[in-house]
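Predict structure. Chain length: 180.
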Amino acid sequence: MDSTIYLRRVIEGTLHRVLLEADLRTIFRYRHNWHRFYTFLLLTGIRSADLSMLTSRNLARERNVVGYHRQSTGCYEEVPVPHNLLDVYPNEMRPDQPLFPDLYCDIEEWEFREEKLNENLGPPAEFLEALLAAAGRPAASLMAFRITFDHGIKEGNEAFHHALISRLTDPLEIMDMPQS
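Prediction complete.
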């Protein structure tokens, strides 16, 4: 098995970039409609389209993982999730209940699903842009959460990532986040 670590290429001046501490402070300073969605993106590295398709059936609470089939390849993946992030979902949820109902799309035919997913993911993407713009920060895409996750873990910045895990689910503590 190849043990090489591959980082996504970050191109200066694009929306797909690493989110810096100032960006994360801006995004998570206040609780808003997309707070949980952004937190899940950042702490798991799951693609936004895949995350929007998850239901409570995907949660394996006893192992603190989320299992899902990637939309791009159809491969099954399990991703570790901090228990405090899973705890916000009640155990009594129906198995087919979406984790993010405003984004969920259950359309069988791929071409229609992709169009619907893009439509559904517009509001959190636009809100992210508005948050960053209001704070004078450079724009970023939803993919920036995944890139930030990858770079934080794979470049040996585990301390920063663990601080995020313990603090991002409590928005009042985000101001105490360590300097990166």
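Summary: Residues 110-134 form the longest helix (25 residues).
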